[in-house]
Structure formats: C-alpha cells, structure tokens
Amino acid sequence: MQKWILSLIMALLISTQVSAQQVYVEGVDYKVISPAVKTSDSSKVVVTEVFWYGCPHCFRLEPYIEHWAKTIPDGVIFEQVPSVLNASWSPHARAFYAFELMGVQKQLHQTLFDAMHVKRKRLNSIDQLADFVAEQGLDEQLFRDSYTSFPVDVQTRKNSQNEKRYGHNGVPAIVVNGKYLASGSMAGSNDRLIKIIDYLVAIELAN
C-alpha cells in the first residue's frame, strides 16, 4: 500500500512538472520555422539573436541576453546576428562584421549600443561609424576597408537570406536551433522571453 501511495505521489509530481513546462504554446509564445534553417554548428544547439543596433527593444534586451549567455549549459552555443531586415539597417550590420574582422567586436558591441541609445549619437553612415571607431582610439582606415570588404558583403547577404527563412518581421528575434522563433512581442516581457528560450533549448537538448 505504501509503495502504491509513493508511486501515485511521484506520478502526480511528474504530471505537475510537465504541466508547468507546457505553459508555452506554439503559435502564441513562439513559432515553428518550417523548413528549419541550417545553423552554424549542427553538433550543438545554436541560439541566435537577430538584432539591430538602432532598436531600443534590442538595447533593453541586451543585459538579459548577456546574463543568460553566461549560464547556458554544455551543448549550447549563442550567437548574435545583425539584422538587415530593413535596408537602412545595413550600415550597422556591416559595422558589426567589420568589427569582427578587426578583432574588436566584443570591445565595441555595448559601446555602440550605448553611443546610440544613451548618448543619442547619429551613427547611420560609414562616415559617422568611422568617426565613432576613431573616437575609440582604433584604426579608422582599417574599419573603412573592413566595412567595404568582400567577407562583409558575403555575410550581410547571408543574413538577408536567413532572415527571409526565419519569417520574422521585427527585432529582437530569437531563433533556437533554426527551428523555433521567439520574440519579445510574443513573450510579453524580456524575463518571459528568456524563460521561453530556455524551454525551447531544453526541447532541443532532449532530442
């Protein structure tokens, strides 16, 4: 009798846990991307944040994402991808990849966000961005050369193709393993968005 009661309690606990995990609903809290988009590493669960430096929502999400990225489990990798959903966003996407070529992307990522959203600087052209780079004590000409380089052309074109496949119409957008699309607008808050990301990551890790 005691064994039966213990089994019943365990079953109820498991049922409760499953129910708690099922609060996120496909089509409401996240979308399924069909067909799935190839990721940068098929051996890992890849979480991709698609963002734009000029987006205030992306700016406000950044500290949440930065904290979350420090806690990801083994088997998961995180990447940030600058959006070219709108043609006017292209200069910032090109700047992101120019920074990568220069080896200063991590150094300048938050600095550029802050310059645009805290200091309210207009950084929408190669000249304005080059001035920004020079202000950081970096090589302005190297930035210009990187900005207009073939590798940056290739990467921004690739982004455009992938964004069409993701099917999103705004940023920030979070893509989990090329299969699921989540966003702040669907989640309702940045805190809840992080929980949805964890939920979708858990699904992929279990597969």
Q: What's the number of extended β-strand segments?
A: 5
At the fourth level of CATH, the homologous superfamily is Glutaredoxin
Q: Report the β-strand fraction as a percent range.
A: 5-15%
Radius of gyration: 20 Å
CATH architecture assignment name: 3-Layer(aba) Sandwich
CATH class: Alpha Beta
Query: Segments where pLDDT lies below 50 for 5+ residues?
Result: 1-20
Shape annotation: globular
- How would a textbook summarize the main sheet? 5 strands, mixed
What's the structural domain tally?
Answer: 1
Number of helices: 9
| Mean of all residue-level pLDDT scores | 91
Helices and strands in order:
Elements: H1 2-21, E1 31-32, E2 45-51, H2 56-69, E3 76-82, H3 90-102, H4 105-117, H5 126-135, H6 140-147, H7 150-166, E4 173-176, E5 180-183, H8 184-187, H9 190-206
Parallel strand pairs: 2-3
Antiparallel strand pairs: 1-5, 2-4, 4-5
Helix pairs in contact: 3-4, 3-6, 3-7, 5-6
Q: Would you write up a description of this structure?
A:
The protein has 207 residues and is of the alpha+beta class. The chain has a single domain (25-206), classed as 3-Layer(aba) Sandwich (Glutaredoxin), CATH 3.40.30.10. Helices cover 56% and strands 12% of the residues. It contains 9 helices and 5 strands. A 5-stranded mixed beta sheet has the order 1-5-4-2-3, sandwiched between helices. Strand 4 and strand 5 (180-183) form a beta hairpin. Helix 3 (90-102) packs across helix 6 (140-147). The two termini are 36 Å apart.
